[in-house]
UniProtKB/TrEMBL annotation:
The lineage of its organism: Bacteria, Pseudomonadati, Pseudomonadota, Alphaproteobacteria, Rhodobacterales. Residues 13-189 form the Ketoreductase domain. It comes from Sulfitobacter sediminis. Keywords: Oxidoreductase. Gene3D superfamilies: NAD(P)-binding Rossmann-like Domain (3.40.50.720). GO terms for molecular function: oxidoreductase activity. It is an enzyme of class 1 (oxidoreductase). SMART domains: PKS_KR. It comes from the Bacteria. This is SDR family NAD(P)-dependent oxidoreductase. Belongs to the short-chain dehydrogenases/reductases (SDR) family. Its EC number is 1.1.1.-.
Length: 253
């Protein structure tokens, strides 16, 4: 048997990561680069992207753009593909949570949440898929959530998009996996990111969330590395249409 470690080697692959300026998106970009991929990070904050490039070094480029701008997708795809060629891997980590209670949801907040969390992963993937089809190889990794299946206070818009991500992932697999493109999602539990700052700033709440897991703690950034590399590499070649919960067993209890 060949050494199975090569299954996780991303040497020669090109990865695009949205939401790469901070949080799990930034961690994803760093992890993919460490596994050998050329990485293009996409986010709105140019300064944060510059620091990401400095952290990774050679083999990393960045594009400052709003992935929720649907009209800008063609130009964005050109910019993403310019440094290293068309991506083999796309990780959709960009997201927003307005945390508006159901009675207080505004049309603007609703539309913003759907545009970034649900519409952007589909339309950017749709635009990148032709190049993946030409290679008969591609990896799409969406970001699901505990709220893909659970209802949290103040999460009606966010939860609706993350439930949609679950079905979007399955539908992407049905459409594109016959062409060598797998589509899966990671469902993180509570990780210390900008998006969850309100949770971690409340120590009692953070401890309650940790107690809800089977493992007994909240997520650390390195906990995402293995699952991400699995879904982005040849190691998951026969896995598609799945939501992998990386939540310490939160959803198991």
């Amino acid at each position: 048997m060949d050494d199975p470690r090569h299954l996780f080697d991303l040497t020669g692959r090109v990865a695009c990561v949205t939401g790469a300026s901070s949080g799990l998106g930034r961690r994803a970009a760093v992890a993919l680069a460490a596994a050998g991929a050329k990485v293009v990070g996409v986010a709105r904050r140019a300064e944060a992207l510059d620091s990401l490039k400095d952290e990774i070094g050679a083999g990393a480029e960045a594009v400052a753009a709003d992935v929720a701008d649907r009209d800008g997708i063609p130009a964005l795809v050109e910019a993403i593909s310019a440094p290293f060629g068309a991506p083999d891997i796309v990780v959709h980590a960009a997201g927003v949570n307005t945390r508006q209670a159901a009675d207080d949801v505004t049309p603007e907040g609703w539309d913003q949440t759907l545009a970034l969390n649900l519409s952007a992963p589909f339309f950017l993937s749709q635009a990148l898929v032709p190049a993946m089809k030409a290679k008969n190889w591609g990896r799409i990794v969406n970001f699901a959530s505990l709220q893909t299946t659970r209802a949290f206070p103040g999460g009606i818009a966010y939860g609706a998009t993350k439930a949609g991500i679950g079905q979007l992932t399955r539908a992407m697999a049905e459409a594109w996996s016959p062409h060598g493109i797998t589509a899966n999602a990671i469902g993180p539990g509570f990780f210390p990111t900008e998006l969850t700052a309100a949770v971690f700033n409340d120590e009692a709440r953070a401890q309650r969330n940790a107690a809800q897991t089977c493992i007994g703690r909240n997520g650390a950034m390195e906990d995402i590395d293995g699952p991400l590399l699995f879904l982005c590499s040849q190691a998951s070649g026969y896995v598609t249409g799945q939501v992998l919960m990386v939540d310490g067993g939160f959803t198991a209890k």
